[in-house]
């Protein structure tokens, strides 16, 4: 047997063995060429990781039901859904510590789990007594708005009902007609700053907003209390009303002087024209004296109202007399002097009527026109107060600076 085996691999068998080796090499070369033809392009690291994540199953993916193997094979590569309930309780408590009470109340309405997790006993344990008290003081008791700096909240004390949830924001205080937000008073904010109330909008003037007005000579670096306005739109609107009043005052003075001059020149013989015109001219200067020398300490508007009523009555007879002359003598030509006199007398009558209305508003509004800025003011109320504001701007806008008895 050994001799036979040796003879099989001897020199006579070399040709068949070499042919086998050649055949194997050709097969391997053919396989290598086919592999090159079907080889993929090299992938970068991001593509490889993405392909591996897409191929490998998720270790935490929930098991699929046995009766839906096809859908399981389709959804096995999808990312499992993420929600708050999947987080551990420690992380949920940490999230609760960064929420305000409005968000916590909304969260409690979502499900039973969060209703229990954010229950009042749990919140007391989670926040602690001091932090919970501070957090409650930062919320408005009415609308629960959160103000971490308390700059828009009114101050509260331990004696207030519901403390520490006893603070109130400025908007809710305006809606509730809080007596602390009245012009002429000072109010204490949640920041412990005692500030004034703007006489134009009725809101507190916080320290960073500043108090507009001329400097107080007795206290360098401060402002007079007579002009508590916000430096921005409020003081700008007030200055615009002063400019309007200044221009309007000169127009009224010009009309009064011109009307008296026309009656002196053309209607000296008509008593119903000349006498009332002279009287109104004299009363006009008395009113001007009140405007120039009236201070902000005493309210003299009732006397100005009486004078305006007298001037209004003085301009009625001239208008009536000239109108009757035109109606009773239609054959006469209406000359330029009569037309000018009738126009000027009528304008004086209209201007004095507006002055009477403005003085009535000033006397009875004392002089708070800030309800037009309240959040709950209706359209009709805003229109009425806007009309009153224009009446004050027409008559005497500095009346909003008048010091009240509470000051």
UniProtKB/TrEMBL annotation:
<feature type="region of interest" description="Disordered">
    <location>
        <begin position="56"/>
        <end position="80"/>
    </location>
</feature>
<protein>
    <recommendedName>
        <fullName>F-box domain-containing protein</fullName>
    </recommendedName>
</protein>
<dbReference type="InterPro" id="IPR036047">
    <property type="entry name" value="F-box-like_dom_sf"/>
</dbReference>
<feature type="transmembrane region" description="Helical">
    <location>
        <begin position="270"/>
        <end position="293"/>
    </location>
</feature>
<feature type="transmembrane region" description="Helical">
    <location>
        <begin position="242"/>
        <end position="264"/>
    </location>
</feature>
<keyword id="KW-0812">Transmembrane</keyword>
<feature type="domain" description="F-box">
    <location>
        <begin position="81"/>
        <end position="130"/>
    </location>
</feature>
<feature type="transmembrane region" description="Helical">
    <location>
        <begin position="342"/>
        <end position="364"/>
    </location>
</feature>
<dbReference type="Pfam" id="PF00646">
    <property type="entry name" value="F-box"/>
</dbReference>
<dbReference type="InterPro" id="IPR001810">
    <property type="entry name" value="F-box_dom"/>
</dbReference>
<feature type="transmembrane region" description="Helical">
    <location>
        <begin position="305"/>
        <end position="322"/>
    </location>
</feature>
<keyword id="KW-1133">Transmembrane helix</keyword>
<keyword id="KW-0472">Membrane</keyword>
């Amino acid at each position: 047997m050994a001799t036979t085996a040796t003879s099989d691999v001897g020199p006579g068998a070399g040709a068949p063995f070499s042919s086998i080796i050649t055949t194997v090499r050709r097969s391997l070369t053919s396989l290598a060429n086919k592999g090159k033809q079907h080889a993929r392009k090299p992938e970068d690291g991001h593509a490889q990781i993405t392909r591996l994540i897409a191929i490998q199953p998720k270790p935490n993916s929930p098991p699929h039901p046995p009766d839906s193997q096809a859908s399981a094979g389709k959804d096995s590569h999808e990312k499992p859904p993420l929600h708050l309930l999947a987080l551990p309780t420690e992380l949920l408590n940490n999230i609760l510590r960064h929420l305000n009470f409005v968000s916590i109340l909304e969260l409690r309405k979502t499900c039973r789990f969060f209703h229990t997790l954010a229950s009042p006993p749990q919140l007391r344990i989670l926040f602690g007594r001091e932090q919970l008290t501070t957090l409650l003081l930062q919320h408005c008791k009415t609308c629960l708005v959160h103000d971490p700096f308390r700059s828009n909240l009114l101050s509260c004390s331990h004696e207030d009902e519901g403390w520490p949830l006893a603070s109130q924001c400025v908007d809710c205080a305006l809606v509730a007609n809080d007596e602390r937000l009245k012009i002429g008073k000072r109010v204490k904010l949640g920041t412990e700053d005692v500030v004034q109330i703007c006489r134009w909008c009725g809101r507190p003037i916080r320290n960073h907003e500043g108090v507009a007005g001329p400097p107080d000579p007795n206290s360098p670096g401060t402002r007079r209390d007579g002009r508590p306005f916000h430096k921005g739109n409020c003081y700008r609107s007030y200055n615009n009303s002063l400019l309007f009043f200044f221009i309007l005052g000169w127009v009224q003075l010009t009309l009064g002087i011109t009307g008296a001059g026309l009656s002196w020149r053309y209607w000296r013989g008509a008593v119903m024209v000349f006498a009332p015109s002279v009287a109104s001219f004299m009363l006009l200067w008395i009113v001007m004296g009140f405007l120039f020398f009236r201070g902000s300490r005493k309210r003299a508007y009732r006397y100005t109202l009486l004078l305006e009523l007298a001037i209004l009555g003085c301009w009625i007879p001239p208008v009536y007399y000239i109108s009757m002359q035109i109606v009773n003598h239609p054959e006469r030509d209406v000359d330029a002097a009569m037309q000018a006199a009738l126009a000027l007398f009528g304008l004086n009558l209209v201007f004095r009527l507006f002055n009477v209305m403005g003085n009535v508003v000033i006397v009875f509004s004392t002089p708070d026109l800030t309800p037009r800025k309240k959040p709950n003011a209706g359209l009709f109320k805003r229109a009425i107060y806007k009309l009153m504001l224009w009446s004050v701007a027409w008559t005497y806008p500095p009346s909003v600076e008048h010091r009240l008895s509470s000051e």
